[in-house]
Design goal:
mainly beta, about 10% helix, about 170 residues, 2 helices, five-stranded antiparallel beta sheet
């Protein structure tokens, strides 16, 4: 199995909206597309859960993928779009909940005119390590990622998340 996030001692947390471990995805090259890890092995010390918050700019898409070992729940805090989950393709708006069983294909598209703000929850760790590997801490320069580098990262994390495109 691939690298997992080290676990710290469990610590209760109360985090405001923008608090947590902040990242910008290297593939987006847009510092407004922020991901925040709020609870995982390093943040709060959960051995079982991963929770985060993400903003996607209008027109952005979460590429088709599946999480092989973990169920995922997405709660839409703000915005609208189209979710493709398995054979289901459905529009959603603020307040929607999207449930993705493990090993079911998912893609989310921001079709609205405002950032899509979502909270994501995983039943098992793994995505947190992938997020760290494909991002830079917020405030640091966003370094471009080559196709080869992205393919290597995705191969390293394939035990948890499998994308349709390399």
């Amino acid at each position: 199995m691939a690298h997992l996030t080290p676990i710290v001692a469990p610590t209760p947390e109360v985090l405001e909206l923008d608090q947590g471990e902040r990242y910008v995805r290297r593939g987006s090259m847009d510092s407004t597309n922020v991901s925040i890890l709020k609870v995982d092995g390093q943040n709060g010390g959960s051995a079982d859960l991963v929770m985060g918050y993400e903003r996607l700019a209008p027109g952005r898409t979460i590429a088709p993928h599946r999480h092989l070992l973990a169920d995922e729940i997405i709660f839409v805090h703000q915005g609208s779009g189209i979710a493709e989950v398995g054979d289901l393709k459905k529009s959603f708006g603020t307040g929607a909940t999207i449930y993705i069983p493990k090993n079911v294909r998912v893609s989310v598209h921001n079709t609205g005119s405002v950032p899509l703000a979502i909270a994501f929850f995983f039943s098992k760790p793994g995505f947190d390590a992938y997020l760290r590997d494909t991002s830079v801490p917020s405030g640091q320069p966003i370094t471009p990622m080559s196709g080869e580098e992205l393919a290597a990262i995705r191969a390293r994390h394939r035990w948890h998340v499998a994308y349709e495109q390399p």
